[in-house]
Design goal:
With about 220 residues, the protein is α/β, with parallel strands linked by helices. It is built from eight helices and seven strands; from the N terminus they run αααβαβαββαβααββ.
Length: about 220
C-alpha cells in the first residue's frame, strides 16, 4: 500500500472511532459538534427532507437526538425511530416528550429491524454512515416497506459559499471524509435490489444537498 493509501486508512479508522464516541458516550455533545462543523447549517440540512415526507406513518433510521422525530410529530405524522445508540434514544425520547408528543423509539439495528413486513410507506435516513448502503440494510428496508413504498436518504452536504470561513469548513469536511470527492454509486445497491431510484438535488443558500429517493416495486 502506498503512503496515500495508508493515510486514508488511518484517517478512516480515526474518524470511525470518533463518530462512534460522538454517537454513544459523547452523545450529549452531538448537536454542538454538528452545529460547529457545519457553521450552524446542520438543522437546515436535516430539515430539507421534511417536504418529501407525506405518509402519516414514517420510520426513521438512525433517529439520533430526535430533531426529525419531533418535527414530523408536530406535523401530525406518526414517526417511529430506530437507533443503535441507547444514549441517542434517551435524548430523542426526552426531546419528544418535552413537547408533549408520544415517543416511539426502538433501540436496534437497520440490518435486523424489529418490524413486520409491509409496515411503512416511507423510510427515512439523514446523514447515515455507510451501513445504509449495505445489502443487509437495503433488504430490510425493502421488507418493511409496503409495495410502492419509498426510502429517502440524505447522504451528504457540500458547502458551496465562497467566503473564507465557509471554504475552511468545506475543506474540513473533505479532510475528515464527511463528503466524497466524487458522487459514489449511491443508487446501485437499491437498483440491484429491485428499487426504482433517483437523486434529487437540493440547493440551499450556502450549501448543496443530494436526496436519494428509492421506490419499491408495486
Amino acid at each position: 500500500m502506498d503512503l496515500a493509501g495508508i493515510i486514508i486508512r488511518i484517517r478512516t479508522t480515526f474518524m470511525r472511532g470518533f463518530f462512534h464516541l460522538l454517537y454513544h458516550q459523547l452523545a450529549w455533545s452531538y448537536d454542538r459538534v454538528a452545529s460547529l462543523v457545519s457553521l450552524g447549517m446542520w438543522q437546515d440540512w436535516i430539515s430539507a427532507v421534511l417536504p418529501y415526507i407525506q405518509d402519516p406513518v414514517v420510520l426513521e433510521l438512525g433517529s439520533g437526538p430526535g430533531h426529525i422525530q419531533l418535527a414530523l410529530k408536530q406535523k401530525g405524522i406518526r414517526a417511529v425511530g430506530l437507533d443503535a445508540s441507547s444514549q441517542m434514544a434517551r435524548m430523542a425520547a426526552s426531546r419528544v416528550r418535552k413537547s408533549n408528543q408520544v415517543s416511539e423509539l426502538v433501540i436496534g439495528y437497520a440490518q435486523l429491524m424489529p418490524f413486520a413486513k409491509d409496515t411503512f410507506k416511507q423510510v427515512l435516513a439523514t446523514f447515515p454512515s455507510d451501513y445504509i448502503f449495505k445489502s443487509a440494510t437495503v433488504q430490510e428496508i425493502q421488507r418493511v416497506l409496503i409495495p410502492s413504498g419509498e426510502c429517502l436518504i440524505l447522504p451528504a452536504a457540500w458547502i458551496t459559499a465562497s467566503s473564507l470561513k465557509f471554504r475552511w469548513a468545506a475543506r474540513l469536511f473533505e479532510i475528515t471524509g464527511q463528503v466524497p470527492d466524487h458522487q459514489p454509486d449511491w443508487l446501485g445497491p437499491f437498483v440491484q435490489a429491485g428499487f426504482t431510484a433517483e437523486t434529487i438535488p437540493i440547493e440551499l443558500p450556502s450549501s448543496r444537498l443530494i436526496l436519494i429517493r428509492a421506490r419499491k416495486a408495486a
